[in-house]
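Hypothesis: this fold can be encoded by more than one sequence.
Test: take the structure tokens below, design a sequence, compare later.
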């Protein structure tokens, strides 16, 4: 039975191949369900953002409200009116976003330039999570596509209903926020909406499924292969080339993100040297937004224009000159930088936090000078600093993910129960982490929120875990704090010169105090740093690692370091003689010592640990192997899905163009195939001959007999000199006898086949033309 469509009493029924009938009561829900899946795909991306910055309940409330409103208005207002309402909803949403971003209410509707600028930045690769007002932007973005998609779907305009949702999902693909699986599901839902909707509306045949499959494959391929130029100078993507898996590459792996991983490696090789009359930690990155498993720097960077923000209150200044000893993707500075000088500053960007970074990697020998502020970090001054925080500080540096557990909040409250001010809260948290957790580079990253896992479940970790957890604990207590990466002071080789190695990579916490600014706290515990650090360096020297020293440091024992106070010591509690923060080595012996703890992870005498003196070994644990295998499985699954999509698309495309028949006919020209009845073989031989002649001369005309056709091709009147091979006449005679006469013998059929085979071989490239 042929495919057809019928309608009875207003209830359309689609008849599909035989007796299979699918009514609109089934197809319509399927189409609407596909629209909901498409909507859920991009809403899920936005939900992941609001889980980090807050606003998930508002997001779901807006989505539910838009779905309900669209359902109610579907039969009441016209599509143009619905489109206008969607634009108005988007306008109010983004007006609220611009207001939150600092545009005055009186000019918010004329501030199109700011909105266009942000939109272009997002469409050219800026992730939504890097936006300062990511949550508000998300709530402003979602109403229009949800309302319009559902309105059109309820009205039965299925193809049009895919457009708003498809644009929304495509935009999130451009920003990099929509992952592979989400994109695949959304794209499949869009194709499903069109397919099922077409069946419901027009009674289309499922024979068109091959075309839909081709469209699906093409759209998926395009959506997953979008490449764009970043909307701002991104800077180098790795700290040091060839150091993947090291602590420093993990914490400074990209210009906008700082990663958190499991086991990391360390390197004794020299990264840079500093000339400074004051010891310091050397800061390379500042991050304000915590996603649960990584840190993100929000806002876009701008090129350095000779000015950096000054800290509040009174401060002293210190100058330092930094020289790159290898290729570097970062610019270490002593906090808080006030001004930069040197040739490299012409290609330097500055983040919203005032941290510089090179647009292109620094090369060995590149040098720059920094003037930094020395803030007042005395305990008495910080204890009396109060809580009158500037709005820009509380707005950006109190964020915690929505998924933060109540147990984390309760434990933090217990630890800080006796603290009377933000300074004492910082001291209590710092003391607790130093005394309750061990130091180790061999850890497995917990699932979910890292701060939760470290405080409540883990017994040991390294600086990234300590600093992340302290930052989140302070924020839970309403104390503005931020996560900072960089290096400890390194090895002092002269009165004012420091050699900084990969061993010194570190992360710590900066806490804001009114009228003072950002003050460093370091919750990572101390220990046998000097002894193991010396062993690590001596091992590298013994193995002949020339990159582990400069000319000035090669004969200097690391134990000969000057124990002067650093620029920003972690503030001690003078009223508590047992306070770990009152350790005279605090600041001079940086707590992020990679060899810190009772069982150093990279003890050179431990054969099971990796050597970092040139040739690195794997040194991974079973947990890391499992994580790697799981990661590989994830990649393999995604690749398999993409491969399946491509195969389905190719198969559907082949069916669409009838590739099988075309291939069979092409092969049949050159190969007769199996032989059976002589008459049928003679007829097939002539068919092959006809296709050969049609390619060389012209196809046989409709109504033209076989004999007339060959006679026209063999006429002496041909002017091109290309005469028909006379053996073609013999094939014609066998064909006519097989078709209209008494038939042919087996030998005659074989002769016809042999003639055509020979003529076909002459048509193959390099053999010659048909003669």
């Amino acid at each position: 039975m042929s495919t057809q469509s019928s309608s009875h009493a207003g209830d359309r029924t689609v008849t599909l191949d035989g007796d299979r009938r699918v009514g609109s009561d089934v197809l319509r829900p399927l189409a609407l369900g596909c629209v909901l899946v498409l909507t859920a795909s991009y809403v899920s991306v936005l939900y992941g953002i609001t889980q980090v910055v807050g606003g998930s309940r508002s997001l779901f409330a807006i989505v539910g409200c838009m779905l309900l409103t669209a359902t109610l208005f579907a039969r009441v207002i016209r599509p143009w009116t619905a489109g206008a309402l969607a634009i108005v909803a988007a306008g109010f949403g983004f007006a609220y976003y611009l207001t939150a971003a600092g545009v005055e209410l009186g000019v918010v509707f004329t501030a199109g330039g700011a909105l266009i600028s942000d939109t272009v930045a997002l469409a050219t690769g800026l992730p939504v999570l890097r936006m300062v007002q990511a949550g508000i932007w998300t709530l402003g973005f979602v109403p229009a596509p949800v309302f319009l998609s559902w309105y059109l779907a309820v009205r039965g305009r299925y193809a049009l209903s895919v457009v708003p949702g498809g644009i929304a999902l495509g935009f999130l693909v451009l920003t990099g926020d929509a992952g592979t699986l989400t994109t695949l599901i959304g794209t499949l839902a869009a194709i499903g909406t069109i397919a099922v909707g077409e069946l419901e509306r027009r009674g289309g045949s499922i024979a068109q499924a091959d075309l839909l499959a081709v469209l699906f494959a093409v759209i998926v391929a395009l959506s997953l292969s979008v490449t764009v130029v970043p909307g701002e100078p991104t800077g180098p993507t790795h700290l040091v080339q060839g150091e993947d898996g090291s602590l420093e590459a993990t914490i400074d792996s990209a210009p906008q993100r700082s990663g958190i991983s499991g086991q990391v490696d360390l390197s004794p090789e020299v990264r840079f040297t500093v000339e400074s009359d004051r010891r310091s930690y050397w800061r390379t990155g500042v991050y304000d937004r915590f996603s649960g498993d990584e840190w993100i720097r929000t806002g876009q960077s701008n090129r350095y224009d000779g000015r950096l923000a000054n800290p509040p209150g009174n401060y002293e200044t210190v100058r330092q000159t930094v020289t790159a000893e290898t290729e570097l993707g970062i610019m270490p500075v002593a906090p808080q930088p006030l001004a930069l000088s040197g040739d490299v500053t012409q290609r330097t960007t500055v983040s919203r936090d005032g941290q510089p970074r090179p647009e292109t990697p620094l090369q060995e020998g590149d040098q720059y000078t920094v003037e930094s502020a020395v803030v007042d970090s005395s305990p008495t001054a910080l204890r009396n600093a109060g809580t009158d925080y500037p709005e820009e500080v509380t707005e950006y540096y109190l964020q915690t993910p929505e998924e933060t557990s109540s147990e984390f909040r309760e434990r933090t409250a217990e630890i800080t129960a006796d603290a009377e001010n933000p300074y004492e809260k910082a001291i209590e948290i710092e003391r607790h982490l130093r005394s309750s957790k061990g130091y180790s580079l061999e850890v497995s990253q917990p699932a979910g929120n890292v701060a939760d896992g470290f405080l409540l479940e883990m017994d040991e970790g390294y600086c990234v875990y300590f600093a992340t957890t302290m930052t989140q604990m302070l924020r839970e207590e309403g104390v503005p704090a931020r996560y900072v990466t960089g290096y400890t002071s390194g090895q002092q080789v002269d009165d004012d010169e420091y050699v900084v190695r990969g061993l010194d990579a570190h992360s710590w916490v900066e806490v804001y105090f009114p009228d003072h600014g950002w003050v460093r706290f370091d919750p990572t515990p101390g220990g046998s740093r000097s002894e193991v650090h010396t062993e690590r360096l001596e091992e590298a020297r013994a193995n002949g690692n020339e990159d582990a020293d400069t000319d000035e440091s090669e004969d200097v024992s690391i134990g000969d370091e000057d124990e002067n106070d650093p620029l920003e010591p972690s503030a001690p509690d003078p009223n508590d003689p047992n306070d770990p923060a009152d350790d005279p080595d605090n600041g001079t012996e940086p707590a992020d010592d990679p060899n810190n703890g009772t069982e150093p992870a990279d003890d050179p005498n431990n054969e099971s640990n990796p050597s970092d003196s040139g040739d690195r070994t794997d040194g991974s644990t079973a947990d890391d192997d499992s994580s790697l295998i799981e990661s590989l499985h994830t990649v393999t699954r995604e690749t398999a899905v993409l491969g399946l999509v491509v195969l389905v698309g190719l198969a559907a495309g082949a069916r669409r163009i009838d590739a099988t028949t075309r291939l069979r006919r092409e092969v049949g020209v050159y190969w007769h195939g199996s032989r059976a009845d002589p008459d049928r073989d003679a007829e097939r031989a002539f068919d092959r001959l006809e296709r050969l002649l049609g390619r060389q001369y012209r196809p046989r005309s409709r109504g033209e007999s076989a004999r007339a056709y060959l006679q026209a091709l063999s006429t002496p009147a041909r002017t091109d000199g290309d005469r028909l091979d006379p053996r073609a006449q013999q094939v014609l005679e066998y064909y006519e006898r097989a078709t209209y006469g008494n038939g042919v013998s087996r030998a005659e059929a074989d002769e016809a086949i042999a003639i055509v085979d020979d003529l076909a071989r002459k048509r193959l490239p390099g053999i010659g033309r048909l003669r």
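The chain has a mean pLDDT of 76. The CA atoms of residues 269 and 547 lie 5 Å apart.
Hypothesis status: open.
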